Records
---
Amino acid sequence: MNFGPQTTEADSHLIMDHALELGINFFDTANRYGGDKGVGATEDIIGRWFAQGGDRRDKVVLATKLFGPMSEWPNDGRLSARHIRAACDASLRRLQTDHIDLYQMHHIDRTAPWDEVWQAMETLTQQGKIIYVGSSNFAGWHIARANEAASRRGFLGLVSEQSHYNLLVRTVELEVLPACREYGVGVIPWSPLSGGLLGGVLGNEATARRQSPQALKRIDKIRPQLQRWEDLCAGLGEQPAAVALAWLLHQRDVTCPIIGPRTIEQLNGASLRALDITLEPDTLAQIEAIFPGPGGTAPEAYSW
């Protein structure tokens, strides 16, 4: 998402090359990404990187998304069969590839019947344009309905769910994670550092200055909690960002968090360090005391 609006195309290409050197091969984007460069700009940058050759495309598990409006035209968004097929073709052109490994619905479309959605995804699969289908920001019951509808059609259904999940946002533990576990759906957390709040924002003035007014208000609201968090990480001798990522990797339902580096330094820093951190039971208990979850899965978390 940073490629284009936050990171130059040249630096984006360097980051992707370095990721492959490190063995990182899952690249996630969306057709809407591009910020002030315009929708589709991030896919364009990745496509021009693929076009450089060197087996770049073959080495990457490529994921992108559709849902949001790509223009003001009424049929240029959401999950109608028409838009699903048109959006896929447009992403393929921008990405300069003949197939997408994981095609994700960026949000639930309550106006689109599941038979219509799956009919379009089946067509794309049969045409070889996509291999797997995933969801993003779905509720647990959406995942259940989607996969039950796919099963009735003899289609594989959802293989992954990309959810907002980090130490400060744990509501997915109630129903989304159990649904994913039941259906064998991989979990890909987005915003693992909660917009930087879990990355040591109190101990880094430069990071704090970059926060939006809304984020600064949130920092003030949870400052005691963040201070306990940063003190714990200091006691471990680790960067808070690395520990936050390591915590997600310790969650049994998580396949991989999305790290979204803006620079190679960010990629080489906490993101890689998180792979080598083992959180002992007592440390996990301390983290749980600072950032308590919803109290278990549903309905036990809120019923007798």
---
Amino acid sequence: MTSAPTESTKVKNRRPRQAVHFGEPLPLGAHLCRASWLCGPSVTWMMLFLVGPLLFVVAMSFAQRGDDGEIVWRFTTENYARLFGQGALGFDPVQPLILARSLGVGLLTAILCLLAGLPVAFFIAGLPHRWKGAALTLVVIPFWTNLLVRTYGWQLILAPDGWIARGLRTANWLAADGELYPGWPAVLIALVCDYLPFMILPLYTSVEKLDPALEEAAADLGASPLRAFWSVVLPQIRPGLIAGCVLVFLPASGQFVIPDLLGGAKLALLGNAVQQQFGASRDWPYGSAIAVVALLVMGAGLWLHTRVTRGRREVALP
């Protein structure tokens, strides 16, 4: 008669379990299989509806326009040369002026939003905690209304017979025959008001982390308020400042609805030029070249933002 196996015999005959090490790299085949299941649908969607059309626009920018507005797939760089002023009759400054005007409008809008948004960010950061949520809600309320509706609203507010124009004429700040709309004043006012939240929110996230003891220490050491702001406060809020400027500059430089409606269709930016070429002019290759240059401008802005902020992190002060 065989004796029943003891507990020590069971342990000895038991097959050892394979140890599992978390974080151990998977084999290449398993890694690709898992990545295809997780990222395959989103990558496919991006390739079909973002990368594919973008590559088509880049290819079309090197094509030619036919006599009837059709696309002639013959390689040429005339579209880019025309954009930078090189035409069949010599140098034409119209297109370089549109490019320079777009960059200037984007830069001016970012500066005005910075000057208007910095005090607002400090004001919200200094509010009691229970009021900060309401203040931030008031900042983003304009986004609850469509951009087109807000732009038509500015047409009524800034009209030549509106109360703002009449008040400025009464105060002799506007000529008797002067007007805010249509023109550059209306365009800049609308751009600043529409993109101001993009400046306030990044600035607020940086300002809220400031330590007021550092500014007080700078004042105790004899620094003036301006010197304390420049040497103590500004380095701490620089990430939010740069992020806000990029978020305002990029869309403002390519805006076309606001200049078209508030500028009286006379103030063309890159966005208006693209809309004109793909619309009435039916010159899709040239419009594609303008779109590619606009994308390069935006990419350069993002690259500059990454390069300036590289290695800089907001330090959590004790």
